[in-house]
Known about the structure:
This protein is mostly beta strands.
Amino acid sequence: MEEKVGSVFKYFRKPKVAAVKIESGEVKIGDKLRFKGEHTDFVQEVKSMQIDMEEVDEVAAGDDVGIKVDQRVRPNDEVFLAE
Length: 83
């Protein structure tokens, strides 16, 4: 079963970055995340994350983080830790 870790609150088209509010658990570089919403459903490995323009290797509940994504995401898409 997939664990919901957060939701998208903004998408930056040019750098292809999802702004995600981490609501539970933690996310690390190398984890696989599933982005799921009305028009979104894909899984990808986390290769790059930033908080306030600083690269980070790990984030936890309460963090707002920018995650580089391969596909478009939309506000309110849910983010799950994929198996």
